[in-house]
Amino acid sequence: MSSTYTSRAASPSASYPGTPATERSVLFDNVDLPQYILVTGGLGFIGSHTAAELLKSGYNVLIVDNCMNSHRRVFDRIVQIADNHYADSPQKRPDVKLFDISYQDIPAMQNLLDQYTSWSLSGDRQSSIIGVIHFAALKAVEESIRMPLKYYRNNINGLIDFLSLLDEYNVKKFIFSSSATVYGTVADRGLPVREESCVHKPTLYQDKDSEQLAEQGCTGLTNPYGRTKFFGEAILADLAASDPSWTILALRYFNPIGCDESGLIGEDPKGVPSNLLPVVTKVMTGEYAELKVFGDDWNTPDGTAIRDFIHVTDLARGHIAALSTAQGECLKENFRTFNLGTGTGYSVEQVASTMETVSGRPVNRRKVERRAGDVGTCVAVADRARVELGWETQKSLNDACRDICNFLELNKS
């Protein structure tokens, strides 16, 4: 890490102390100071739900988000969800703070890390940040095709600088927000994809009672966004191989939908949404006239693309499971990838129809040409997460549609 970085103020824009510095942490009774999980991009769709689940699970949380694609009000709603959870509990709500900075602002991040660093008598640096969950990335497939340098600058250059800084502060438990896009055209073969379909070193595995060899690399990445996630994983795999003190889990998301059952937070991106359900909700509310269905000639039963749609609360819980596994030092190796999906695929047509049924509102749709960078089918094999993380999904497509309707009802204004 270059010593030319200079520090500037990185004070939290809001603080809601629930675990005073004089108390022992709820989770970590063997230390005197509270310990924290740092969440970058923690006001975004997946980040906000994960921050809320972390608080409900007893973790103190530091959120970094410059609100480039999120809303400041989400922080207050995360706090409200946590307060509601602890309202009838003898346990105090954990501490949560928001830092309104970019994770790429190294001087500001350095200042933040300084605030949570202590020194031993021998001069060793110790951080009270015991883990990082990294969501802060650009993620629109179509935009990445039009603006690849923007994606490489944020998702790759930013990641390298951030990892270098964490290494300097000895913060080496890292949960990476990856994506099923790393599977490229392998996902389009009509079969569920397993982690060995994209590996960063030659890997032996069992398949149908026989031993198979997965060659290093991936096949047919269709867009720069997917490449940034593959490159990010490769960087992390190389880092872990070079330094065994790192513990890194890359979580490959499939298609998050739904929202917290309280309706307080949901998917509410700035600008034009690129994911399916935000567009569906805009059609339902009359903001959009119709849902454009990209392609009706895919090799699927109804011709529309099939995806593995996972409720965002289940996805958030997957991060808690990953963090617990990282803290327990029980990974098979210090870099490991995990699919987070349901293992069941639904077509765009099925999702739109389910939303119509649950909401009682029409979702007008029109078939248009396929969208650049898309594949026809992408469904997870999620056995590794079930076995090694002790995690599996609990919520259904109907649950997700119901929760979205609740979110819309509570946020009419």
Automatic annotation (TrEMBL):
InterPro entries: Epimerase_deHydtase, NAD(P)-bd_dom_sf
Annotated Pfam families: Epimerase
GO cellular component: cytosol
Domain of life: Eukaryota
Sequence intervals crossing the membrane: none
Any one GO molecular function term: UDP-glucose 4-epimerase activity
Annotated NAD-dependent epimerase/dehydratase domain residues: 37-327
PANTHER family linked: UDP-GLUCOSE 4-EPIMERASE, UDP-GLUCOSE 4-EPIMERASE (EUROFUNG)
Protein name: UDP-glucose 4-epimerase
Organism of provenance: Cyphellophora attinorum
